[in-house]
Write a structure and sequence with these properties.
There is one protein chain. 72% of the residues lie in helices and 0% in strands. By secondary structure, the protein is an all-alpha fold. It is flat.
């Protein structure tokens, strides 16, 4: 009997050892998988950081412009931010590195040094390149649709939404009023009619 117990005990020890080995193998596989995931995450983070750094440093290198006063320099910086690059189309002259943008920055600086006002420089750019060169599109007969369309769409949407939601409720409430008055008159009839139990 003792021998059988020892054999059974050895078998349970062996089975416990097998399950422990299985757990260790599973833990080792999970550790390897986790290490691979962490390496990939580190590589992705590095790639993202480098691309963000490259994009954030992709601003145009502005050529040095010398002005007689800081006010002229401030006006220059403000104006080149208000004009759109005609080549890039979604960058200002200050942000663009295109050759046309460089030429327009130089023309703006020359006109400021010549004593032109901001309005004169804006009108020159607008006459020469059209309304598209301005980031703030002026309100004219040609651009009225651009200014009026969003407000009109909003008002039409609100009218449609509230018009559609209030009319069914009004109809429903009038139906409910009719049903309520019919129920009240029926209740009055029942209350006023003599009970058959009393007779």
């Amino acid at each position: 009997m003792k021998t059988n117990k020892a054999i059974i005990m050895n078998k349970s020890t062996i089975s416990m050892t097998d399950s422990s080995v299985g757990r260790l193998e599973t833990t080792a596989k999970l550790s390897q998988t986790l290490a691979i995931c962490l390496k990939r995450l580190a590589a992705f983070t590095l790639a993202f950081s480098l691309s963000f750094f490259a994009v954030s440093n992709s601003y145009a290198i502005l050529e040095a412009q010398s002005f007689d006063s800081p006010e002229l320099e401030q006006r220059y910086n403000q104006l080149i931010k208000e004009f759109r690059c005609l080549v890039c189309q979604n960058q200002s002259l200050a942000d663009s590195d295109a050759d046309l943008a460089k030429d327009l920055r130089q023309k703006t600086a020359d006109m400021l040094r010549a004593g032109k006002s901001d309005a004169q420089i804006s009108s020159f750019m607008q006459e020469r390149y059209g309304d598209f060169v301005l980031y703030r599109t002026p309100f004219t007969a040609y651009t009225a649709f651009i200014w009026v369309a969003p407000l009109s769409a909003l008002l039409l949407g609100l009218w449609f939404f509230f018009g559609r939601t209030t009319k069914p409720q009004q109809a429903k409430s009038s139906e409910e009023k009719g049903a309520t008055s019919a129920a009240l008159s029926r209740a009055k009839e029942l209350l006023n009619s003599p009970r058959s139990d009393d007779s």
